[in-house]
Specification:
This protein is α+β, with helices and mostly antiparallel strands. It has ten helices and 16 strands. The termini are far apart.
Length: 368
């Protein structure tokens, strides 16, 4: 069978390797500069993902059986659009575009009894009026914690406007700040049925940007809480019309065990969550199943998946510089790491990292 892969960067490389292992013929599409995975494709086309019409025509000529990507918002939009043009199994592209609008997601899920919603409003940074404090201000179509700010006072809001991290003419979503522990739920969907695979515990850098400094699987929560999060995710995905593929839903749980929706991503989780951690902590070959869904071959009988151990990732930033001695050690539980100790930068979004360290063990590796 023939598989088209949108993108050839760090997050797509596991798709190429897994497809090779599955005996599939791969066709990679990406801008050539930085295409780390291009040498792992059977056929590589140096076409920018912005040229989706040309990609669709090439895929039609090739006769591909599936179109896929992983852990990339823009590549997900392109992948769904191309697959839809070819009549292949995918999410409707419009659904993915809608989900990337955080205000739209709030509107579509506000009636759900399985979750609570923070107070919110939208508008440009210059025109928006914040009726509640403290609040979180973020781009309506942002990702990776880009442009996320905690705002405590009107005076503070005026100060951040000049260096908010927003793009020009970009609308903001302001939401009531909810105190609690944040998790992400990693799922697979197939023909509108949803299968929760794992719950990830997030290590947050806190205010003002809430960058993610690490992740652990499985989350240290009760069975009742896990079931509540799973039920919430299923109702959320159904409400927004999500049908096929991986999803990464961020939720917050308060002291009173109330569940709040923070964000919904119509793709596998980044930060090595979908590409590495799930395979290390469960018996689900997550990347293989993402590919199978694109080929319309998902085996529903393999569900439910089981935990087989603990996994996690720590990121090296200025905030976590105290972890550097651990990065330099040869810890037996560490399966992969990469870092630059000479260029450790402060993280203001999830792209500002100077290294990572992935582990697998029988218990959670607690370094702080």
């Amino acid at each position: 069978m023939k598989l088209a892969i949108m993108g050839a960067g760090r997050w797509q490389l596991p798709l190429y390797l897994k497809a090779m292992e599955m005996g599939l013929e791969t066709y990679g599409f990406a801008y050539e500069q930085g295409a780390l995975a291009k040498n792992h494709a059977d056929f590589f086309y140096p076409i920018s993902l912005a040229d989706k019409e040309l990609i669709a025509e090439k895929c039609r000529q090739i006769g591909v059986d599936g179109v896929i990507t992983c852990a990339s918002d823009f590549a997900t939009e392109v992948s769904c659009w191309v697959a839809e043009q070819l009549g292949l199994n995918t999410n409707p592209c419009q659904t993915v575009l809608n989900i990337h609008d955080k205000a739209w997601v709030r509107e579509k899920t506000k009636h759900l009894s399985s979750i609570r919603q923070p107070l919110s409003c939208t508008g440009s940074l210059d025109s928006i009026s914040l009726p509640f404090y403290p609040c979180i201000v973020k781009p309506v179509r942002g990702y990776g914690k880009r442009g996320v700010w905690l705002v405590n006072t009107p005076e503070e809001f005026e100060k951040i406007k000049a260096y908010s991290g927003f793009n020009d003419n970009e609308d903001a979503l302001a939401e009531q700040f909810i105190a609690g522990k944040e998790y992400s739920v990693e799922s697979l969907s197939y023909h509108s049925k949803h299968y929760v695979v794992q719950v990830t515990e997030k290590v947050s850098g806190g205010a003002p940007h809430f960058v993610e400094l690490g992740h652990h699987q499985p989350a240290d929560i009760s069975d009742a809480c896990r079931e509540k999060l799973s039920d919430a995710v299923s109702t959320i995905l159904t409400a927004v019309g999500y049908t096929n593929g991986a999803s990464h839903v961020e939720l917050k749980v308060t002291e009173n065990q109330e569940v709040y929706l923070i964000d919904l991503n119509p793709r596998g989780g980044g930060d090595y969550i979908s590409t590495h951690l799930i395979q290390l902590s469960t018996d689900c070959d997550y990347i293989k199943e993402i590919i199978n869904i694109s080929l319309d071959k998902f085996d529903e009988n393999a569900y439910p998946y089981k935990n087989v151990g603990c996994s996690g990732v720590y990121f090296l930033t200025k905030q976590t510089e105290f972890l550097l001695p651990y990065f330099k050690q040869d810890l037996t539980c560490v399966v992969q790491k990469e870092y630059d100790s000479n260029n450790i930068s402060e993280s203001v979004n999830n792209n500002d990292r100077s290294g990572y360290m992935i582990y697998k063990d029988t218990k959670k590796l607690l370094l702080y």
